[in-house]
Design goal:
By secondary structure, the chain is of the alpha+beta class. It contains 23 helices and 14 strands. The strands form four sheets. Strands 3, 4, 5, 6 and 7 form a five-stranded antiparallel beta sheet that branches. Strands 11-8-13-12 form a four-stranded antiparallel beta sheet, sandwiched between helices. The protein starts with 7 loop residues before the first helix and ends with a helix.
């Protein structure tokens, strides 16, 4: 029936036909549009994918040549200034190289004396491990860097320290550099020449390895480093350094004698000094020992396994015996018999060091001369310092105290006052020129396998050194004994690498400086004056000496001048780096982490190199 409703099946068939028809119309429309496309539209179809490929290639090349590393910032300061990835990586790698090389060098020089681990003992860093794989144990007082426990936890790593140090380095150099530029400071011609010379030396080194300079810099300093950026960083560092140094000299030159005297009156104990005789006796804590075979120089040692209670009782006995010995010494001691009493009390194998007639005699083992309050406190303890500076003291007074050591032992200290507190009126410091004729020389040696090592070779005897020194001095004197000629001779003849290029000049020598004793004794001999010359002999060789200048200030005045200028210079520096423009810092921890990972890979290769060098040196020594 015509009006009868259609079945569900029929409705479904009609709907399907309609969809098919609509789809066919759409396909027909697409075919028509395709037929009518212009040539430009057809080109776009192929151009757009090609452009995407080119962009990817360009971005890859930009990354390869380090463009993002120079453009993207790791650090952003409060004033909007930035430090790029490349510059930050330079600071990070520089501090890693410095500390790892120092650790390795200390290990080579002092390992024979202190045993394996000397490098870590002296620097805190183990060159055999990468930064992330070793705990950082130094304090803020040691490094000037505080590692926040909330960020790094209780056991931060050296990678954490390098991160914070590099941020601080970048911040301080940038702040001081901009302050210098604002103040009109400029690099000197000599500083600019030194930078140019360094760049050219790198260019020469690169060429020897068949690298372009930029390729060499990228390989050694990180992706993003090139000549332009390296030059900029060197200029920033040099200008920042010279600006602070010049300001420090300017500050120091403005301090008057009246200001120095006022400072002394405020801090008398720090600039008054005393002379003491001292003797220490150590009661060692008892410890278990491990078995040890006898050698040519030691006896065999049996292993012990005492309980903690037994060790404590043994320690107590050691302390009581040593205390009795110290009290006996104290009762007998006077200012007149002190040195003889020490000589009689020390062990037989140590007597030569306490015998004034012995070549091995060292008065620093019994005498503290010209020491101030803080030095006494650090060397002994506060009780000794308070006693020595008590207004009731008299020359010849004596004092005994003790210090409990961390390991449970006890050190007994006996002192006799040689002088009341006084101001050291010796004119200090002095500047000395010297020409060293050394007894030994380090030379690079290549073995049969092509391995290179450094060996110390004797180049002359002590007698030969003194004879040659005398001949050089006699000729110089006969030519007029002029300082200008001495400067030239030092450049030609001196074998002291630290001073030869500077005319043999060693500046800022005090009576308590750490130079060899014959050197200091000559510099501060009674009546020494500018223009004096002579020859001294030390363990290093023969030194031809020339007194270049003597300070017009006394020791106590010079010490105060240094303290005052340091205080003022530090404040000037802190005011710059703590300025809000640079103290407010935002860092990209994500980018920093990438730098750290790169340095970890680099450090792993450095560790391998160190291990190979150590193995080669061991083989060379064995042969």
């Amino acid at each position: 029936m015509a009006n009868e409703a259609k079945s569900a099946a029929e409705l479904a068939r009609e709907e399907r036909k309609a969809r098919i028809g609509k789809a066919g119309d759409a396909m027909a429309e697409k075919r028509e549009k395709k037929a009518n496309q212009s040539k430009r539209q057809k080109r776009l179809k192929w151009i757009i994918p090609a452009v995407v490929i080119v962009i990817a290639l360009v971005l890859g090349l930009l990354y390869y040549f380090g463009v993002p590393h120079r453009a993207l910032s790791v650090i952003r300061f409060g004033n909007g200034e930035k430090v790029s990835i490349a510059e930050y990586e330079y600071y990070y790698k520089a501090v890693y190289n410095n500390i790892s090389n120092s650790s390795y060098q200390y290990e080579q020089y002092y390992g024979a004396y202190y045993g394996e681990g000397a490098g870590k003992m002296m620097t805190g860093f183990d060159y055999k491990k990468t930064p992330k794989n070793q705990e950082f144990t130094l304090s803020e007082a040691d490094t000037g860097i505080k590692l926040d426990k909330e960020i790094y936890g209780e056991n931060p790593t050296w990678a954490d320290f390098f991160k914070e140090y590099s941020i601080k380095q970048a911040q301080e150099i940038t702040a001081v550099y901009n302050a210098a530029v604002k103040d009109g400071a400029k690099l000197s011609d000599d500083q600019q020449k030194e930078i140019n010379d360094n760049i050219e030396q790198l260019r020469k080194t690169a060429a020897e390895s068949n690298y372009s300079l930029n390729a060499y810099l990228m390989a050694n300093y990180g992706r993003g480093m090139n000549e332009s950026l390296l030059r900029k960083i060197m200029q920033k560092q040099a200008l920042a350094s010279s600006y602070i140094q010049n300001k420090a000299e300017e500050i120091q030159s403005g301090i008057t004698d009246d200001q120095i005297l006022d400072y002394y009156n405020e801090h008398p104990n720090e600039y008054n000094t005393v002379d003491l005789y001292f003797y220490t006796l150590e009661a060692e804590a008892a410890k278990n020992t491990e078995a040890q075979e006898a050698t040519d120089t030691t006896e065999a040692v049996e292993a012990t396994n005492y309980t903690d209670e037994e060790l404590a009782e043994m320690t107590k006995k050691n302390v009581e015996e040593k205390k009795a010995e110290a009290e006996s010494f104290y009762e007998k001691a006077t200012i007149d018999n002190f040195l003889n009493l020490v000589y009689e009390s020390v062990e037989e194998d140590m007597k030569e060091y306490f015998n004034p007639s012995s070549d091995s005699y060292n008065d620093s083992y019994t005498t503290a001369a010209g020491v101030n309050y803080s030095t006494i406190e650090k060397s002994f303890n506060k009780d000794v310092a308070d006693w020595a500076y008590d207004s009731s003291r008299a020359v010849g007074d004596k004092f005994m105290t003790s210090v409990e050591e961390d390991d449970g032992g006890t050190t007994f200290i006996i002192v006799v006052l040689k002088s009341l507190p006084y101001k050291d009126d010796t004119l200090q410091p002095v500047n000395v020129r010297h020409i060293l004729l050394a007894l030994t020389k380090d030379e690079e040696v290549t073995d049969d396998q092509g391995n290179k090592t450094t060996e110390t070779k004797t180049i002359r005897t002590a007698e030969e050194a003194m004879e040659q020194a005398q001949a050089i001095l006699d000729k110089w004197v006969s030519d007029g004994a002029k300082e200008d000629d001495f400067i030239k001779l030092a450049a030609e003849k001196s074998e002291d690498p630290g001073s030869a290029d500077n005319g043999g000049l060693i500046e800022g020598i005090y009576t308590d400086s750490s130079y060899v004793k014959p050197f200091l004794d000559w510099a501060y001999a009674d009546g020494r004056k500018v223009g004096d010359y002579g020859i001294v002999e030390s363990d290093y060789g023969a030194h031809i000496m020339y007194m270049s200048s003597i300070s017009e200030k006394t020791k106590w005045q010079a010490d105060i001048l240094t303290a005052m200028s340091n205080d003022a210079s530090n404040k000037f520096y802190e005011d710059i780096v703590n300025d809000k423009a640079y103290s407010e810092i935002k860092v990209s921890n994500g980018l920093i982490k990438k730098v750290q990972n790169k340095i970890e890979d680099y450090a792993a290769r450095v560790v391998e190199t160190f291990e190979k060098q150590s193995a080669q040196q061991a083989d060379s020594s064995a042969n």
